[in-house]
Amino acid sequence: MSKVQRPVVIAGAGPVGMTAAADLVRQGIPVTVLEKSAALSAESRASTFHPPTLDLLDDLGFAKPLIAQGLKAPQVQYGSTVDGELGTFDFSAISDLTRHPYRLQAEQFKLTRIILEALKDNPLFDIRFNSEVASLAQDANGVAVTTGAGDTLQCDWLIGADGANSVVRRHQDIPFDGFTWAERFLVVTTSADIAAVRPGVTSVSYWADPQRWHFLLRIIGAWRVMLPVPAEMSDDAARAPEYARESLASVLPAGVAAPIEHITLYRVHQRVATRFREGRTFLAGDAAHINNPLGGMGMNGGLHDALNLTARLGRVIHGKDGEDTLDGYDRQRRAVTMEAIQTGTIRNKKNLEARTPEDREAFRSEIRKAVADREKTREFLRRISMIDSLQRAAAL
Ligand SMILES: Cc1cc2nc3c(=O)[nH]c(=O)nc-3n(C[C@H](O)[C@H](O)[C@H](O)COP(=O)(O)OP(=O)(O)OC[C@H]3O[C@@H](n4cnc5c(N)ncnc54)[C@H](O)[C@@H]3O)c2cc1C
User: Fold this and answer.
1) Domain 3-73+100-177+270-353 has CATH 3.50.50.60
2) What is the pLDDT of residues 158-192, one digit of tens each?
3) What is the per-residue burial (b if ≥16 Cβ within 10 Å, else e) of 235-272?
4) Ligand 1 pocket: which of 145, 181, 186, 286 to mutate (most atoms <8 Å of CB)?
């Protein structure tokens, strides 16, 4: 059994764990990241970086290389298959509030690779692949983290960034309150040029439909099309290429060839840990909260968690603040997770699936009013780009 002594150990080398590691290293703090897999994940998951997230990543030196590998989406569009386009918003309306007035469409694995490349030779950074956190024990002086291979690492602080099934969260018996939606979401990636066959569609485009909404998202060289899958359909049937083809055909003009690059089916939850801190252990990212992807807030919220927490840990470790500053992490991040991320993503889903004439009218009129008035446009963009939730957290 080997022992190391580190100020901070991070469970999980996803975007949240790697961003936390980078910010601690930037502050001169040694960090060990334990990752259960043999390498960084290459999975096609989140692909949206919001403007203030890019500002934060820019402070760490990661925005430029990420932007070089992504697609800038300066506009976001809302429509209804019944009523047509409802409104298109341009982030230039809030260019005084962010250095990056656009959403960046880049897969999350691009960020983790950029960070690993930047940190790999830094003596303050230690990453251990094939190292699954299996258990932990903590007292007033520190945390002992034991891996599946039987290694125990001693640290002052542990960040659980180990994803939705977090061992760190389960080990502390922290409830993950919330619910799972009955329907799953299907994401079909196609190389078809959707902008060419649906003129006027922008790179981020949400389409309400009382029967089956859809969401179009352009990434470099492809489009991702997201649609709900009825609860009664089996996973196998929903993943079948034939169903993906039918789903694509339902949102494209007849006869358009749409080669399928990738199919993902996933279960969608709205859950938040009842506390983000337990003594010397913290939860961040999906370990702390999960939500539906409409609005692209899951990973962004996780990155906001990571940087809120590492700023506090840095001050405590460098003796600039007492440990009670760490309570602010749970207070700020848990509150905005509930208020902005959970409420916002549930509202986005409800708007897209609105069935009654009253609900459809409420969505239509919200978008039309927001488009028609500059102040309302700015309010709307501040909310959907998560500028508001960051400012709200800072004020709590
Ligand atoms: C299929 C799918 C599609 C998604 N699509 C979108 C989307 O379109 N938009 C959006 O905003 N969000 C989406 N998400 C959510 C988004 O991917 C997450 O919010 C984001 O990955 C959170 O980052 P994270 O670092 O907290 O967790 P993760 O990315 O899950 O990273 C956790 C890391 O911890 C490692 N790990 C797990 N357990 C242990 C352990 N015990 N010990 C050590 N390491 C461990 C894992 O291997 C992984 O590398 C999607 C999620 C899924 C599953």
Assistant:
1) yes
2) 999 999 999 999 999 999 999 999 999 999 999 99
3) eeebbeeebbbebbeebbeeebebebeebbbeebbbbb
4) 286
